[in-house]
Amino acid sequence: MKNLLESKRYFEGFCEGTLYCRYLTSAGLNLDLKIKIFLLIAKHKDSTYSPGDRTKQRLKIKTGKVVLAIIAGYLIDKDKSALSALIIAKKNEKRYEYLGLVSAGVGPKTVKKILTYGKRTTKSVFAVPSKVNRKGVFRTPIKNPEIVWIKPQFNCEVKFLELDFTGEMRHASFKGLLPY
């Protein structure tokens, strides 16, 4: 197989996180590959490619998925007296599914709007209780958290890389509130 891949590669296209490549092997066989990717590196057409070198001629393009979701609540770090993350959910038919936490991209205007107009409730929207402040591969839980549930009145858009094995978003980034 290694000898098959030591050949010429022809780029065919890029669509929704999948790269389609056609390899023409030294044995004259066409080998079509479908590779799931999360990052593309582009370069200026006149620049040379040097593996491992980082230059201003290269451009990183991260791929990701965008989900329309609701804000089910938020997490407050009591030690810092500040909102730490938004609790994100997606509506599936008549119930809500926990997607994870997001803090990147949440600006002060969004925080003020949620704290001012968010209608608090004592119960979460989830039928199955979710472990909101759990330790993850890329996340350390808050030591002294307060979970505040709100009614599902805020629609939002969140971009993320992929869902992990628990169904939570990885590398989530808040893109903004949407009209309800």
Please characterize this protein's 3D structure.
- By secondary structure, the protein is mainly beta.
- It has two domains: 2-62, no CATH class; 65-178, Beta Barrel (OB fold (Dihydrolipoamide Acetyltransferase, E2P)).
- Helix content is 8%, strand content 49%.
- The strands form four sheets. Strands 6, 7, 8, 9, 10, 11 and 14 form a seven-stranded antiparallel β-sheet that branches. It has a three-stranded antiparallel β-sheet with strand order 1-2-3, with no helix packed on it. It has a two-stranded antiparallel ribbon with strand order 4-5.
- A hairpin with a 2-residue loop joins strand 1 (8-15) and strand 2 (18-24).
- Mean pLDDT is 77; it is low at 1-16.
CATH class assignment of the largest domain: Mainly Beta
Give the topology string: H per helix, E per strand.
HEEEEEEEEHEEEEEE
What is the count of DSSP helices, taking H or I runs of 4+ residues? 2
The Rg value, from CA coordinates, equals 22 Å
Give average pLDDT, whole number: 77
Low-confidence stretches: 1-16
How large is the share of residues in beta strands? over 45%
Helical/strand content category: mainly beta
Shape: elongated
Largest sheet entry: 7 strands, antiparallel
Oligomer: single chain
CATH superfamily of the largest domain: Nucleic acid-binding proteins
The helicity comes to under 10%
Secondary structure tally: strands: 14
* Number of domains as seen in the coordinates: 2
Named CATH architecture of the largest domain: Beta Barrel
